Every structure is written in C-alpha cells, then in structure tokens.
C-alpha cells in the first residue's frame, strides 16, 4: 500500500514513474579501510540491510572505471544516500522509443526517389568512399530496436563474419517499459524498424538496386536491442546496453532515443559521457522538439557532456513522398540553428553538431518492404533519429584513417558534420567549443590552440564571425519564445592577443581570445549568444564555436505563478474533484479522497522538493498562495530543517528537472498520500505543504536561492 502512492505522477512528465532507482557505488579501491573481501555491491546491500531498508535488486552494473552500481526498487531513498559507498542515486527515467517512423516504401525507378547519394555529396562522404575509406576495422554499436540482419544489403546474416557481427536483445518482443526485462538471444527481425533504418544509414552495402550506400559500409555493426515492439525504454536497460557495448569493444555508438530535459545529468547521460571520455564516439539524437517548445529543451541522454548530440539538417532534395510536387527543399543543406533548441541549463553546447536527417533513403526490415524514404519535415524526433547514425558513420570513417582514438577531431565545433574536411584538414583547433557560461560564471578569456598538422608551413589569421543572439524568453513574460526563436542583431565582440602567426609542420600556437557578451540586451529575456573563431590559412579554415548567455541564470524564474494555462494561479492544491483547494480541508486518504499538488516549471531546476511543514509555519514564500484565507492551527509536530526552514518531513525530492512545454497535459502533479517519502505514515493533523525549487546555479544550502510556495492547510484525517 505505501509504495503504491509514493510517486504517483502523470506519465508524460520527466519524473521517474516507478520507485526504481539507479544507485551508483564507489569502486572498492576508492574506500580506505574497506572490510576484507568486501565487494562494492555486497557492501551496498549489507548497508541497506543494516538500515532496515527493504529493496529489490533488478540489475547490477559492474564496469570498473565507468559505472558500478545497481538498479534497485526501494521506497526510502533519503536513507540510501548515506549508505556505505553510495556515490549517487538517480531515479530511473523512461525514454520515448524512436517515434513511429513515417516512411514510404519505394522500389527502383520510383519517381519519389531522392538523389541516391545526396547526403554523402553534401558532406564529402562520397569522396572518402572513392578512396576506400568505408569504416573498415571499426565496430559500431547501434542501441535501438535491433536490426533486420536478413536484409541482403545488411549482410543477410548474424554473427562473426557478417556485417551485423554481434549484439544482444535486452527486451524481447513483449517488454513494455515496465517490469523485468527479458534476456533473449538476438533473433527477432520484423519489429526492428527504427534500428534497420539506422543500420542502413550507417552500413547498407553498395551494389543494391537503389545505388546507395551506408556512410561506413565497411564497418562491423553490433545491434543492441533496448526497445521492444511496444514503445519506451528505461535508463536501467540503456545502461546495460552501453556497458555491454564497451565490453564488446565498440569504437562508436549510435543512440536514437531520448527525453527532453535540458540537463546534462541523468544516469544514462553520465554513463554515455564517461564512455565518450575514454576515446569512443557516442552519437546521440538531439531529439529536437523545437517546433513546439523553444530553447532550453534538448534531450537526455543526448545532453551527455562528452557525447555528440546530433541535430538534423534536411537533405538537399525532398523526395516526392506524399504526392506533392518535387520542390528543392527550402531548408536543404542549411545548418539548423542551435538556438532553437539548446543550450543546457549548465550552459553546454547541445546539440553539438548537425547531420543530414530528413528525407533519407535507407533500408527497411524485409517484411516491411526492404527500402524506404524516411520522410516528413515535421517529424523532428525522426529526423534527429536519422542524423545520429550519420554522425556515427562519419566517426567510423575518421577512425579508419586516424586510428581509433582520434575523437577530438571528430567534432569541429558546431555546423554540418564534414568527415572529409575533418580527415584531410591540415589544421586542428582545440577546444572546438568555447563555453562562456552566464554572466555570473563568465569565462570570457579563452585559450585556444591552433596546430599545423599538414606537411607545409602555414600562415594563419584569426577572425571572429558572430552568429545569432537568441532571445529565449518573451520580453516581459516568463514564457519561452517559440520556434523560430527570435534573434537580436547585437553580437559579442572578440579581441585576440595575437591574430597572425606562422606555424611549421607539427607546430602549435596557443592564443587567448577575449570574448565580451553583447551589450544593451534585456537580461530577463535570457539572450543566448554565439559565434565562431576562425583560424584561416589559404583555403584551409577551421573554427571553434563559442556560446554564452548575457544574463545571470540565477535570476531566471523557475515556477509558473500565473494562470495562463489553467485559468487559476499556480502552484495549487487540487481537491479530489480537480478543483483548487482554497480553504483548509481535511482528507481521509480513502477511496481517492486525497489532494494533489499541481505546478508548472517555466525553467529547469536542479532540485525540487515538497515538504510537510507545520500549519502555523512562519515563512515568506516567494510565491504567495492567493485568495487563501490565512488561518493557522497550532501544531506540536517538529523535526529537522531544510535550507533553514523547519520541516516535519520530506514528501518528494527530485533533481534536474527540465521545464514544461506549453501543453497542460504534461504539467506536474503529485498525488499526496499520508506517508512521508521514506514510507513512514504521517500522523493525523493539520499541515501545510512547502514546495521549493532551486534556481539554476543556486546554492542548495542557501534559502534565498529557492523559489517557494506554501499551500493552504491540508488536514490528514486518515
Ligand atoms: C525472422 O527471421 C527468420 C529467419 O531468420 C524467419 O524465419 C522468420 O519468419 C522471421 N520472422 C518474422 C516475423 O518475419
Ligand atoms: C551509382 O552511383 C555512382 C556514383 O555515386 C555512379 O557513378 C554510377 O553510375 C551509379 N550507378 C547507377 C546504376 O546509377
Ligand atoms: C557554468 O557555471 C555553473 C555554476 O558554477 C556550473 O555548474 C556549470 O558547469 C558551468 N558550465 C560550464 C559549461 O562550465
Ligand atoms: C587548397 O588549395 C590548393 C591549391 O591552392 C589545392 O591543391 C588544395 O586541394 C586545396 N585544399 C582544399 C581542402 O580545398
Ligand atoms: C480537520 O480536522 C481537525 C481534527 O479533527 C478539526 O479540528 C478541523 O476542524 C477539521 N477542519 C476542517 C476544515 O474540517
Ligand atoms: C517576512 O517578510 C517581512 C517583510 O519583508 C519581514 O519583516 C519578516 O521578517 C519576514 N519573515 C521571515 C520569517 O523571514
Ligand atoms: C521517516 O521520515 C519522518 C519525517 O522525517 C521521520 O519522522 C521518521 O522517523 C522517518 N522514518 C524512518 C523509519 O526513518
């Protein structure tokens, strides 16, 4: 009974939907004076038992150096943090599977066919293929729905010697995102639509009736199936797949899944980032929802700090898929503006790069028709699902030529992926991204290193090319601006300590670029500015991309305190009929007689808490509960403080929540039960509920860094 109501949240929020958590533990060697023979997992379980915490282990992760821990269902999260060796506890997130793919089955000679190799020509992949640079010797893991390896252009078989040389099925056909996963042999084929589209973009063999080829058709593909025939996938399974792919020796990983977040946190993102830091390339769909959501909304795990989050550009040619006239695509070949989607709340540059992702001719599972054009300019998820494998294939080409640890050169700053240029450039600029942060944490002076990796002496000139400054919030409101995010014609300025120099082959020069944010903009609109620093020598030109926000992020409002979506002010307590509770009300918690806390976030928060507090608490909340008569009941309960506020006990604590979009159905609710977050029953009495959201960059220990709201009196009469 007690667990059932603990996290009863609406399904589409970014919250955990079960009481499943991923607990990360320290390596045994990290802990001095460890007990003899104590292994990290055993130590954790023993410590939980000593604390009388009931738990059920679902999966164990044992990849020293990358991730040690377990996915565990438990109720008492707060008590686990202090258990032996625990490094982090993160709720399990559910990711949407690659959205139902809209595609048109095609046959040779079909007038709807796009130019067979247009995306390869756009990026120089065709020229690399001519030089037999096809990803030979590189292993690419595809974490998706599986691949129809019976497809003749995908090798026609499975196992050593075949194109699809290995893999694993973590879910079977019937797993629906809940419960234990099925560990099966990799043998399915008809449900593998998304993975087969991805597999063809990376690896389709030439010599097919359509005269197309995958970006890296010489690479080995390994299929890790994490999505069943029905829908979603959870962190615990994706992490399993990520860790197995590393043990299998993958050099490159492609993931086309995600959930909007805006944060670089989340267990899958953390694991993906650590894998990328070991020199592998992890390409993940940016999952852009730009058309309906605006900025600060990129997906996790694509936000993983070291992963490459891939946005989509359209193919240069739009095929005639729906009986429409064959138009060059208006956006064809254009680099999508990053400003519509990112950055992250901690000011990382996501999406990191753009690759072709729309209107791509690729393989379909044989039972579904073998070949199709993944189409539809509005299907944003689909498009980034198709661009991540393009990036993964491009990385494999680079690895074939430069060796399998050349990952720094793979990402030449923002822009369209250019594997040909990345391989044949005679200049390398590092870092490729200059992260300037907000005005409080401003990192204006940036050290940049330019290296001549060519065979001749080169004379370089540095220059600055500003890009757009995105106005990410509507002036005078707390609402995000929607796509296309408006741009201000005010730019950063840059000075160099040295703007011209000459380098012999193998020589490098470090320079300092001092970047000043654009002036005269309204900081309350959170203007995100960006631009490029170019190092040019003759026709050789490389760039680093800078990104910053001309405002202190701490000032951005997190909680919606308006009535714009619901017609009554938020946050609010809803009674069992869904009406705002305006006067003190007692609840029995029987037969659905329970209150619900409803709130919306217009910006991300690193920490959100609901605490039970005394009905007579003295507290100046930042958001006042309007139209609520101020009655106070005396109350004898007492216990603890949080950020200097006396609290009785925590009801809910969530970290790294992204903002809501504009759809009321996805707003955040918490159905109260008469239990604390640790499962202990709350004594009958009169209380209030304190909602607090920490501001971005805020100090969790500083009360002034929270927005807060205090509910009307909620009586527990269970
Ligand atoms: C899956 O592939 C096998 C051959 O490997 C075939 O016998 C079977 O019919 C296929 N199943 C479906 C549902 O297409
Ligand atoms: C296939 O494409 C290549 C270039 O990408 C071209 O040279 C060749 O003629 C094409 N073949 C057919 C049958 O279209
Ligand atoms: C920006 O500053 C915040 C606050 O110190 C920090 O948490 C974040 O990691 C910084 N971002 C970058 C990209 O350095
Ligand atoms: C740069 O120019 C030289 C001759 O001026 C040419 O040989 C070379 O191919 C060019 N490089 C690129 C990358 O276009
Ligand atoms: C709620 O219950 C308490 C305790 O029984 C009682 O004193 C109080 O009057 C009740 N409040 C309301 C609004 O019914
Ligand atoms: C609440 O605000 C009032 C007016 O600003 C102030 O006098 C009072 O001390 C504050 N109370 C607390 C508990 O901070
Ligand atoms: C659970 O939390 C409440 C409120 O903080 C506390 O009073 C109670 O002792 C806790 N129960 C356990 C078993 O730790």
CATH C-level label of the largest domain: Alpha Beta
- Count of separate structural domains: 4
Strand order of the largest sheet: 8-9-7-11-13-15-16
Low-confidence segments: 1-17, 182-187, 316-323, 328-340, 376-382, 626-639
Protein name: Peptidase S8/S53 domain-containing protein
Organism: Roridomyces roridus
Family: Belongs to the peptidase S8 family.
Keywords: Hydrolase, Protease, Serine protease, Signal
How would you describe this protein?
The chain has 4 domains: 20-91, Alpha-Beta Plaits; 95-422, Rossmann fold; 426-555, Immunoglobulins (Immunoglobulin-like); 557-716, no CATH class. It has 10 helices and 39 strands. The chain has a 7-stranded parallel β-sheet, with helices on both faces. The longest helix has 23 residues, at 380-402. It is globular. One 2-acetamido-2-deoxy-beta-D-glucopyranose is lined by residues 346-348, 435, 437, 441, 697.
Top keywords for this entry?
Immunoglobulin-like; alpha+beta; six-stranded mixed beta sheet; 4 domains; seven-stranded parallel beta sheet; globular; Alpha-Beta Plaits; binds 2-acetamido-2-deoxy-beta-D-glucopyranose; 718 residues; Rossmann fold
Question: What's the arrangement of secondary structure elements?
Answer:
Elements lengths: L19 E6 L14 H11 L4 E9 L3 E8 L2 H4 L5 E6 L2 E2 L7 E3 L12 H6 L1 H6 L8 E6 L19 E6 L23 H11 L16 E6 L7 E2 H13 L4 E4 L3 E2 L6 H11 L3 E5 L4 H4 L5 E2 L7 E7 L38 E6 L1 E4 L7 E4 L5 H23 L16 H6 L2 E4 L2 E5 L7 E8 L5 E14 L15 E2 L4 E4 L3 E4 L4 E9 L10 E11 L2 E10 L22 E3 L10 E3 L8 E4 L5 E10 L26 E2 L2 E2 L2 E9 L10 E4 L13 E10 L11 E5 L3 E3 L2
Parallel strand pairs: 7-9, 7-11, 8-9, 11-13, 13-15, 15-16, 20-28, 30-39
Antiparallel strand pairs: 1-3, 1-4, 2-3, 5-10, 6-18, 12-14, 17-18, 19-21, 21-26, 22-23, 22-25, 22-27, 24-26, 27-28, 29-31, 31-36, 32-35, 32-37, 33-34, 37-38, 37-39
């Amino acid at each position: 009974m007690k667990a059932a109501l603990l996290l009863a949240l609406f399904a589409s929020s970014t919250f955990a939907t079960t009481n499943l958590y991923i607990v990360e533990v320290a390596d045994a060697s990290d802990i001095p004076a460890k007990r003899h023979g104590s292994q990290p997992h055993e130590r954790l379980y023993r410590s939980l038992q000593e604390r009388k915490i009931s738990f059920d282990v679902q999966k164990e992760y044992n990849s020293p150096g990358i991730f040690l821990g377990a996915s565990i269902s438990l109720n008492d999260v707060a008590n686990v943090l202090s258990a032996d060796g625990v490094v982090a506890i993160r709720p399990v997130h559910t990711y949407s599977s690659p959205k139902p793919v809209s595609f048109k089955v095609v046959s040779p000679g079909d007038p709807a066919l796009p130019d067979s190799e247009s995306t390869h020509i756009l990026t120089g992949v065709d020229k690399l293929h001519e030089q037999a640079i096809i990803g030979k010797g590189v292993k690419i893991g595809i974490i998706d729905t599986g691949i129809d390896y019976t497809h003749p252009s995908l090798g026609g078989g499975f196992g050593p010697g075949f194109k699809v040389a290995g893999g694993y099925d973590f879910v079977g056909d019937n797993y629906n995102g809940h419960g234990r996963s099925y560990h099966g042999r990799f043998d399915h084929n008809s449900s593998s639509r998304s993975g087969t589209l991805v597999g063809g973009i990376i690896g389709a063999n030439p010599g097919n009736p359509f005269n197309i080829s995958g970006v890296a058709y010489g690479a080995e593909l390994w299929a890790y199936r994490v999505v069943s025939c029905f829908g979603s996938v959870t962190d615990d399974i994706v992490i399993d797949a990520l860790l197995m792919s590393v043990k299998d020796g993958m050099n490159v990983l492609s993931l086309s899944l995600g959930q909007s977040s805006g944060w670089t946190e989340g267990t899958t993102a953390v694991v993906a980032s650590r894998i990328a830091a070991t020199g592998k390339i992890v390409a993940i769909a940016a999952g852009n929802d730009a058309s309906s959501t605006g900025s600060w909304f990129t997906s996790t795990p694509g936000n993983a700090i070291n992963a490459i989050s891939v946005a989509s550009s359209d193919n240069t040619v739009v095929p005639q898929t729906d009986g429409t006239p064959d138009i060059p695509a208006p956006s064809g070949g254009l680099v999508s503006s990053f400003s519509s989607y990112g950055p992250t709340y901690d000011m990382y540059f996501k999406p990191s790069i753009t690759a072709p992702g729309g209107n791509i001719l690729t393989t379909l599972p044989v039972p579904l028709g073998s070949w199709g054009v993944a189409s539809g300019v509005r299907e944003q998820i689909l498009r980034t699902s198709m661009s991540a494998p393009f990036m993964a294939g491009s990385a494999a080409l680079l690895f074939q030529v430069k060796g399998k640890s050349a990952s720094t050169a793979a990402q030449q700053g923002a822009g369209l992926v250019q594997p040909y240029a990345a391989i044949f450039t005679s200049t390398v600029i590092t870092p490729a991204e200059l992260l300037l942060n907000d005005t409080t944490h401003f990192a204006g002076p940036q050290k940049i290193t330019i290296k001549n990796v060519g065979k001749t002496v080169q004379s370089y000139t540095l220059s600055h090319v500003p890009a757009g400054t995105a106005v990410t919030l509507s002036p005078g409101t707390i609402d995000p601006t929607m796509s296309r995010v408006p741009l201000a014609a005010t730019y950063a300025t840059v000075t160099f300590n040295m703007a011209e120099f000459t380098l012999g082959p193998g020589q490098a020069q470090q320079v300092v670029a001092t970047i000043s944010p654009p002036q005269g903009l309204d900081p309350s609109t959170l203007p995100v500015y960006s631009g490029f620093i170019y190092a040019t020598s003759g026709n050789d030109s490389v760039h680093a991309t800078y990104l910053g926000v001309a405002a202190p992020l701490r000032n951005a409002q997190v909680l919606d305190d308006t009535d714009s979506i619901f017609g009554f002010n938020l946050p609010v307590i809803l009674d069992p009929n869904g009406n705002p509770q305006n006067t003190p009300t007692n609840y029995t918690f029987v037969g659905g007689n329970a209150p619900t806390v409803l709130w919306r976030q217009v910006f991300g928060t690193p920490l959100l808490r609901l605490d039970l507090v005394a009905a007579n608490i003295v507290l100046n909340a930042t958001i006042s509960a309007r139209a609520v008569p101020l009655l106070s009941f005396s109350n004898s309960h007492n216990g603890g403080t949080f950020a200097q506020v006396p609290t009785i006990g925590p009801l809910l604590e969530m970290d790294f929540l992204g903002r809501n979009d504009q759809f009321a159905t996805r707003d955040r609710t918490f159905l109260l039960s008469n239990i604390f977050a640790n499962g202990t029953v709350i004594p009958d009495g009169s209380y209030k509920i304190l909602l607090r959201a920490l501001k971005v960059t805020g100090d969790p220990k500083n009360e002034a860094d929270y927005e807060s709201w205090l509910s009307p009196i909620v009586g527990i009469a269970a």
